[in-house]
Each structure stands twice: as C-alpha cells, then as structure tokens.
TrEMBL record:
Source organism (scientific name): Pseudomonas fluorescens HK44
PROSITE patterns: HTH_LYSR
Protein name: LysR family transcriptional regulator
SUPFAM superfamilies per the UniProt record, alphabetical: Periplasmic binding protein-like II (SSF53850), Winged helix' DNA-binding domain (SSF46785)
Top-level division of the source organism's lineage: Bacteria
BP term (GO), one: DNA-templated transcription
Molecular function GO labels: DNA-binding transcription factor activity; sequence-specific DNA binding
Residue ranges annotated for the HTH lysR-type domain, each copy included: 1-59
Keywords: Coiled coil, DNA-binding, Transcription, Transcription regulation
InterPro entries found in the cross-reference section: LysR-type_TF_proteobact-type (IPR058163), LysR_HTH_N (IPR000847), LysR_subst-bd (IPR005119), WH-like_DNA-bd_sf (IPR036388), WH_DNA-bd_sf (IPR036390)
C-alpha cells in the first residue's frame, strides 16, 4: 500500500476514533485499516496509536504526525482538484509560439479578444519564423505557416490559407516605373526576405498562365522578417515580398502599392499545432476553438483589401 493511502487510513482512524468507523468511511474492512496503520508504524519505527479493547489514543508522535498528514493530504486534494478543474475551466498561462507576421497581425488581436471571454488565462508569446520543437521548448501551441507539416504525432488544426504579394512604395514606383510583367522585375531593386518560409533565390509566382519562376537580380537588401521588409519597402528601397498580414495596413493607408496584382506567391496553410488530443487542458482547447472561429474572418477581411489593391494600384503609384 502506498504512503498516501496509509496516511489516509491513519487520518481516518485518528479522526473517527475507531478502526471500525474508519473502515466504514473508507469503504473497506477493519482488518485492512488495522494492517495499514500497523504497516505505517513499522515503516516509521514509531507507535502512532495506543490501542486498548475499549478505546484508541494518539501517542505524542501520532498527534504530531496527524497534523502533518492532514496538511499533506489537503494539499494533495487541492492539487488533484486543480488539475481536474484544468480540464473544464480555462485558467493559467499559455506558452504560445507564432511566426512573425502572423503573430503581430493576427495572434495578438486574437489574444486580446480571447481574454475578454477568459480573463484568467495569461499568455507568453514568442515570435520567430520556424517550426519549434513543442515538447523540447515547452510550448503549449505553435501557430505556423507551412505547405504541409511533417509527421510529428502532434495535433494540427488548419485555420485558413494565405499568401504573399509584391509591394513597393508610391515614391519608388514614381521614380523607377511600374513593372508590367515578371520579366521587367530584372530592371528593379528586388528586396529579399531570408527565412525558412519565404523563397530566396527565385521567386515562384502563380499568375494568369499558371506557375512562373523568376530569377531575381542581385538584391541590395536582405532581411529576415516580413515586418522589417515593410519598413524597407515603405522607405522606397525597392520591390519586396509582403505576406498579406504585413501588407494590408500599408495598402489601406496608401503607403504601399501592390505590384503585378495579377500575380501572387504560393499559398500556405496556417496551422495551430499542439501535442495531444487526450486530456487537453481547457485553456488550450478553448484557445484553439477560438482561433478556428476568429482567424478565418481576419484572413477574409485582409483578402478583400488585397483584392481591391488590384484595381487601384496604378492610381496610387501616380
């Protein structure tokens, strides 16, 4: 019998005043209770209860041990109750990973709305453009862009589809002209994002005639995040790739212009990944369900803005 069980038996005897009463409380036999207490005393090498045919009395050591056992068992009960509650009540801290542009433009907005519903959930958010090791790095959920996911045994919920476009500033296009085909990109300063998601050496477009690969000329500027690329493009450094999430604010404000609006880059799936389907913590379950409801609306709204940029990009460039 394990130590916690023998503690429970001892506490039941001490509180009820008899082995028989303790057995009834614990739904077991008097013999089992007696054996448990004897086993505990043998392990401790200390008499805890003085027994007579008519009554029981705690020894001094037994009284001290009872106080400790009651405290320990109460903490165990509270811990079990808290762990069980985690399956039904969203509470505690979520450690989240997200890729940069997705995190800045979608995930933080989602966190703000989610916490209006579940204010007892707190977030630690890390942004970087890679697929993390959830177990090794201790993340509860990772939100990533990927064509497909490796077979990891994790649960993956698809939140939607997005893609990247080409953008430039009105000032750059006024100075250098507007490209009228993918071939004419060779006459421009093409800025490159260098990370695990975006293409580097060649730009692969999907356009009116299907997939088209363009060898990009020597770039005057490399950077590793889409939001940093937004700053470079806005400051007139050249034409660069922008995920929809990074482009929409500039397109709406007129500080960015969509270039070659009939073309876009390969579509990527947006996934929420977490370790297990079984005994999922309530905060993880409700967070993923919230993302599945909330993120598609943001993606659709941004898609409308990018679509409208096809019509007025030439006007903004003037």
């Amino acid at each position: 019998m394990d130590v916690f069980q023998t503690m429970r038996f001892f506490v039941a005897v001490a509180q009820s005043g008899s082995f028989t009463a303790a057995a009834e409380l614990l739904d077991t036999t008097t013999t089992n209770v007696s054996k448990a207490v004897s086993s505990l005393e043998a392990r401790l090498q200390t008499r805890l209860i003085n027994r007579t045919t008519r009554r029981l009395a705690l020894t001094e050591a037994g009284a001290r041990y009872l106080q400790r056992c009651e405290k320990i068992l109460e903490e165990v009960r509270e811990a079990e109750e808290e762990a069980g509650t985690a399956q039904v009540m969203p509470v505690g801290r979520l450690k989240i990973h997200a890729m940069g542009a997705v995190g800045n433009h979608y995930v933080i907005k989602a966190i703000a709305r989610y916490r209006e519903i579940y204010p007892l959930v707190m977030f630690d958010l890390t942004l970087n453009n890679r697929l993390p090791d959830l177990l090794e790095e201790g993340y509860d959920i990772s939100i990533v862009l990927a064509r497909d996911l490796p077979d990891s045994g994790f649960v993956a919920q698809r939140l939607g589809i997005t893609y990247s476009i080409l953008c430039a500033s009105p000032a750059y296009l006024k100075k250098r002209g507007i490209p009228d085909s993918t071939r004419s990109l060779g006459e421009h300063d093409c800025l490159r994002i260098v990370n695990t998601v975006m293409p580097v050496e060649n730009w692969v477009f999907e356009g009116p005639e299907g997939v088209e690969t363009v060898n990009v000329p020597l770039s005057p500027f490399h950077v590793n995040t889409a939001d940093a690329m937004t700053v470079a493009i806005t400051n007139g450094m050249g034409i660069g790739i922008q995920p929809i999430a990074s482009a929409v604010d500039g397109l709406r404000a007129g500080t960015l212009v969509r270039v070659l609006p009939e073309y876009h880059f390969e579509e990527f799936n947006l996934f929420a990944i977490y370790p297990s389907r079984k005994f999922v913590d309530a905060k993880i379950k409700t967070w993923v369900e919230f993302l599945k409801d909330y993120i598609p609306g943001l993606l659709a709204s941004d898609e409308e803005i990018v679509g409208s940029a096809r019509k007025d990009n030439s006007v903004r460039a003037r």
